[in-house]
Amino acid sequence: MTDDRPDYSPTAVDVVLRPEWAAKEGTDKDIRGSAGSTAFAGALDIDYTVPAGKTVYITSISVAAAAIALADAGKHQTVRGSLLIAGSEHFELGGDGGQALAVSKPIVALAGELIRLRVFQYAEHASALFGAWNGYEVTA
């Protein structure tokens, strides 16, 4: 008798969500980038082109900004992120210091399409920028 299942069955089956399975199989994607000192209205582009024969499903997006100078650390760190796929904007988020969001319905990018996460800096001082998107890639 096995004791690692609630019903002690040796034939029990686990059900996992697709993102969990992608992490197990190594098809998950964690694409991120950063930029050093960026002036007001400056931007960081994080690009990824979906390989031929693949489809990408984006499940979360995050953006952040941090002051470069200690004197600016207590000020607003206004940041905005825009997710573009093949040139069309699909998602936008922002906040003071950053924002992260897991989407309930994955955002889909097809083979050959450019995924661009653009992070904008709107603080009145130099800031470092950070951005990431996460998801998984499957054979189309």
Report what the structure shows.
This protein has 1 helix and 8 strands; from the N terminus they run αββββββββ. By secondary structure, it is mainly β. It has a single domain, classed as Jelly Rolls. The strands form 2 sheets. The protein has a 4-stranded antiparallel beta sheet. A 4-stranded antiparallel beta sheet has the order 2-7-4-5, with no helix packed on it. It starts with 17 loop residues before the first helix and ends with a strand.
Total DSSP E strands? 8
Computed over alpha carbons, the radius of gyration is 19 Å
Q: Please report which band the strand proportion falls in: under 5%, 5-15%, 15-25%, 25-35%, 35-45% or over 45%.
A: over 45%
What ranges have pLDDT less than 50 throughout 5 or more consecutive residues?
A: none
Distance between the termini: 41 Å
Helicity level: under 10%
Mean pLDDT: 91
Global geometry:
globular
| Largest sheet data | 4 strands, antiparallel
- Quick one: CATH class? Mainly Beta
Strand order of the biggest β-sheet: 1-8-3-6
| Total of helices | 1
Fill in the CATH topology: Jelly Rolls
Q: Structural class, from secondary structure content?
A: mainly beta
Q: What is the CATH architecture term?
A: Sandwich
Order of helices and strands: HEEEEEEEE
Number of discrete domains:
1
